[in-house]
Amino acid sequence: MAEQVIFDTLLRELRRLNLYPPEERQLKDLRSKIERKFDNSDNSPEDIDAGKYAVLLYGLALKALEAEAEENKKISYAPEKEDSATIICLDYLALMGTCGRMLAAQILCNKLLPLPQVKEWLSQKPDRITIAVADRMLALEAADVPKRVKLAQSITEKASAMNIADATCFFKVNGTRKGQLTFRTLENFMTGRYGLECRRRLIHPETLEEITTCTESMPSYPDKNLVEDVAFHLRTMDPIVMEKVLRTVERLADEVDSATLKEIIPHTLSPSLPLAKAAMDVIAKFGRSKRGRIFAQIFNESPRIRAEVINRLPLLSSDNFAAFMGRISDGFHTPVLSALFSTLSEEDSHRFGSILSAVLKSSTNGKKNTLKPVLNKILKQDKLNEPEKPVSEEGRTVSGLDYIKLGAPIVLNIEKKQKQTGFKRIFGKETAQPDSLPDIYTGGQISNQRIHKLNRWKSQAQKITFQNCRFAACDFRDSFMETCIFKNCSFDSCSFGEAVYRECEFADCTFSSCSLNETTFYNCSFDGCSFQYSHFDSAVFSLCSIELCEFTAIAAPGSFFCRCRFISCEFNVADFREAFIYKSLMKGLLFIYSEFSSTLFSESEVRSTVFHDCSTLECKALGIQTDSAQLLNALQRTLAARLCQREQLKKRSNGMGNMGQYERGIIYKAIKRWFAQKDIDLSHARFAENNSRRLEWTAAKMNSKRKLFLYMLPALLHSDVFEQANEIEQLCMPSHIDGYSIPLDVIRSLKGIFPDINIETGKNDSVPIKALMSIGSTGTIAQTPESDIDCWVCCDFSKCPPDSRERLQFKLRAVEEWAANNFDLELHFFTMDVKDIRENKFGLSDEESSGSAQSAILKEEFYRTALLIAGRPPLWWFTPVEADEKTYAAMAKKTAVLKGTDFCVDLGNVPRIPMEEFFGASLWQIVKGVKSPFKSIMKFGLLEMYTSSNKYCLLCESVKKNILAGMRGLRRVDPYMLLYKELADFYKSQEQPEYKWLTAMALRLKCGLLDEKGISGHPTRPEEKEIIEFATGLSGENSVGHFKAFKSLSDFRSVVTLGEKINLFMIKTYMKVRGEQDKISGAAITPEDLARLGRIVFSNFAKRKFKVARISLPGPKTHFFDSLIITRDLNKVWEISGEYPDESGARNIQTRIESGKDLTAILIWLVLNGLYDSKMRLKTDLSSAPLRDRDLKKLFANLTAFFPRKTIFNTPVEETLNSEQMRKAYFIINLCAPRESNKIQEVHLVYSTNWGEVFCKPVKVTAALIESPERYLQKEMADIHSGPIQMGQFVPPGSECPSLKIPVR
After folding, report:
1. Is 1127 in a helix, a strand, or coil?
2. Residues contacting residue 374 through CB under 8 Å, at least 6 positions apart
């Protein structure tokens, strides 16, 4: 007891020091007191009790840093100190668990702490501490302190030198999962001494103990060979070792191949029960569709473990459960269902009880009332005791204004009632004595007060309003406040221990370094409040509304949140260990670097909530509704853990007792529905986890500006802030995203950009956006820092005004322009009606659409690459793999019944791609190939693969199958990596190695993996490690075609050669699909689309006289030369060469670009293909006279302005339905003629057409041409001249020849 008093005194002192940092003479005493607390076996810094000390130490460190910075400003020289408050705090925070280490890392990354002190502190600590803290510094991603980040990276590299014993100890203390250890540090362990020793011991073990040590310590790591090395020891025939091996495989593996699974199955019949259980657990996790059959085989062949088999049945899918029931004897059906009924009633009572209740409601049989007592018993399972409404004691009313008077005596009422005497003692009642009743401060408003060290221990107050008050070092312990209002108040270093607040309101208040242990808040509201460096151990929040609040460095272990409402709050480094969130609502929350060990989410709804780098592996969840991947996975883990505990405790099944046939039928129906709902939740967990990973990766590949826009994007569509700021409200249609709430950090960002705008959401007439999803490379290996974003805005326009779509599109176009101008992000919105998507109606489309030929193709690509940014998940996530239309419709109905109609959005199934679709779809890919040739190479290969056999599996279904199986490796779930693998195998089977090579080049180019820079470096994410391994294999010298000649596509000749290969591929492809057209009856492409496509292909690839040929320049490099050299030989042949420095910069390298007798045509070709830019030097010599460099610069500038590259070849697709027409004409006069000539000797006409072609032809000089170029064109080129056209001309500077008489318009 005395020791506890000492510790409480330490807490009070730490709170006081958060107000007044300690002086140097006090440091020794402070360190001594903290040492007494934590330097003994009974009080470990890792204990849950240490959280309150950690947050106060963090607050003290920040306060001390600020004080030291102010002190250093006042003196020119600051002497070195032996110790400091900051160092003391760092020393102990580094030992205080995950949150403590994160707080220590934040201090080390604080610019107020000088870098030399950071280095000194890190150098003085042992590696086990510095590596752990440096790892958390990396997790912070503090781009504003690059030197500290680099220092942290160098320290984490020491992990590579740790041996197995030290590494095992490190893992045990710090953990290895996300939120505990960054992948960069884990990679150092696994590629260093620990990983090498583990592999050696697993491959060549000297003792069985070595196998045990390695398997038990090994962290989860994306290395398939490592799992195979572990699985190899299934052949040791030692049941103890084999059991440990199987447990390791279950823990580490993402998938188990068929051969390994076949080895595991016999172990289920092992005489060793632990080994048999381990084998069954691996099969339950990785057996996929075979699990039901395997479990039935075990059940039939091994009667002694039937109870264990039944206990694992809830881990199976509904299809596997049906397979199990179909393969066991009918006589066992009732006992199995009876045991399952008991198991589900006790271990998943809320979900099973809700389903049983729904089944009973739908029944019309009068016997259903006999099951109501059973249902009530089930629903009472796992219920938590809800806090009762606090009741205040009786007292006498005094003025509320006296509440803040210092020194006012507090009446302690030990006896509030006094006995009567005499006759009244027998017949009378107890009466309250007025003088003994406590004071209840009532009413009044207290404003603008600074209140210091106010003691209101065990006081009572009601109906007082506090406004703009500051409370410092005040004591409110055991007090009771009722219906009080606090506005814009601050509480610094105050104690609220065991206080009660009932129906109080807190608005814009700040709590700093406060103690709220065992404080009760009942029916209170917190709006816009801030809590920092405070602790809430065992605090109770009941019926509270907490909105727009920020929590920084808080400890709330064992706290209880019952029927609370959290909206748009942020928690930064929060300790929620052993906390309870019960029957609460959480929307728009952001948890950062927070700890959730043994936290229970029960019967709550958690939506639109992000857990960023949080430790959630040991979090528990029961009966919750959520879209969070972490909590969906927690649901699955909690069920598995409870089943395991049930088996350990050997709980007996109560069975179905004397239930009749009707009751048993209801129970069986409820059990089947339970399996179906669990399947939906598991599918949701798997897809949500993959979606969350892709969203994080998307942000990681962006710069800070683009990342900010990505976070704000849903909020821009969910609110009217953008319309208000740009004053276009009357032109736009408001919208809202289903299920989305704006997080607090996004609200802050929006207010920073639009400071004078109030954010409004949820207008009654707004368009409901069911889902906001990106399509394409976003969140895949193909995304680069320069990638654009294509977003499908999936709306329900069924109940909206007719003009709502057009008005929403107006807003979206404005947002696109804003993103391009302010965030350097190319963004494309596609406004879609969910009904049209469901029916695959995409219509006649423009350049970024698919046309009538690609409805099925587009749907497949959408589901394969779709990334859910905000809104409802698509129903397709929850339907079986390769479901036909009947199965899809049945699953849609089942999902609506089990999860509600608003659970997901139905965007329709993916139809099979019929042969008649192939022709039109292929032509569209060729057309798109002009813009993105490598993307179209891969897409066309996919189309050809699909139509080569009727047994193909759509790639989107392959991705879906792998995600649902729990696979996480990119080779299984990344759309582009899986696409390449499928195409490589297909072209290999077709004996087309050159196409396989071209596909590999397409992937390398798309993903930015052209040189060693793209596939080297230290991986910071599992995806980066996989990409490095994948690209290294892709670039091997044994690869077909070799990549060596095209290693980085940095020289002009290799780029041109590769472009020629692409054009050849496109032409061959066109000829192939055109030849197949006659073989396909009823090709699904409209005549209009056919005409468009044919003309686009013709304009891009066909050779015509005088046509300026387009060259393909694939690769990231667009400028190859620093200088252009123009010369003419003795045969009057012109040659243009490019010059650029070599890698050393010591000499220039010269490369021939083009040659010919018509210089003007060459120059036009050079400019329109983008081989020239204004920064280049132009060099001419005597052979090129009278041409001079300044003549060429002037010509090139004029041509670039007259024929903009972005538009001249990029004409609208609709124009291809029209006849060919001249659009622009440019005359080049006397370019190579002597400048002193006073006559027009030569004229070149450069003209463009509406089909996206440009021609350069020499024309005969006539009087008609000189006098009226327009009439000349009307006469000489009447077939393509039908109206006024834009004209221009170039006469070399200094030339004495006349100009053409072009009218000025």
Report:
1. strand
2. none
**Per DSSP, what are the bridge partners of residue 775?**
790
Among 341, 371, 344, which Cα is nearest to 358's?
A: 371
- Full 3-state SS string of 295-310: HHHHHHHCHHHHHHHH
DSSP state, residue 399? E
Helix (H) or strand (E) holding 378: helix 372-379
- Return d(Cα 433, Cα 988) in angstroms, integer: 98
With H, G, I as helix, E, B as strand and everything else as coil, classify residue 1175: coil
Instruction: Quote the CA–CA distance of 518 and 558 in Å, as a whole number.
Output: 9
Q: How far apart are CA 634 and CA 572, in angstroms?
A: 21
Percent of the chain with pLDDT over 70: 90
∠ CA 10-13-15, rounded to 5°: 115
Distance CA(456)–CA(644), nearest Å, equals 50
Cα separation, 889 vs 1092, in Å, equals 37
Query: Of 1122, 1079, 1072, which is closest to residue 1097 (Cα–Cα)?
Result: 1072
Whole-number Cα distances in Å, 462 to 253, 479, 481, 671, 714: 59, 11, 6, 52, 42
Give the H/E segment covering residue 461. strand 460-462
Q: What is the mean pLDDT of residues 348-364?
A: 93
DSSP, collapsed to helix, strand or coil, labels residue 625 as strand
Alpha helices in 1077-1117 (DSSP H): 1087-1101
Q: Which residue has the tokens 């269902």?
A: 337
Read off the pLDDT band of 1079 (50, 70, 90): low
Distance of CA 666 to the CA centre of its chain: 42
Q: Are 644 and 624 in contact (CB under 8 A)?
A: no
Helices (H), 387-430: 423-427
Q: What is the pTM (predicted TM-score) of this model?
A: 0.88
- Which DSSP symbol is given to 396? E
Q: How confident is the model at residue 851 (pLDDT cuts 50, 70, 90)?
A: very low
**Under 8 Å between Cβ of 381 and 354:** no
Q: Which two tokens stand for residue 812?
A: 């979206």
Q: What values do phi and psi take at 472, rounded to 5?
A: -125, 130
How confident is the model over 80-138, as pLDDT tens digits?
667 899 999 999 999 999 999 999 999 999 999 999 999 999 999 999 999 999 999 99
- H helix runs in 840-949, sequence order: 855-865, 885-899, 915-928, 933-947
Residues 420-468 have pLDDT tens digits of 444 444 444 444 445 568 899 999 999 999 999 999 999 999 999 999 9
In SS3 terms, 471-522 reads as: EECCECCCCEEECCEEECCEEECCECCCCEEECCEEECCEEECCECCCCEEE
**The CA-based dihedral angle spanning residues 87, 91, 97, 103, taken in that order and rounded to the nearest 10 degrees:** 10
User: CB–CB of 852/1085 below 8 Å?
Assistant: yes
Q: How far apart are CA 907 and CA 863, in angstroms?
A: 10
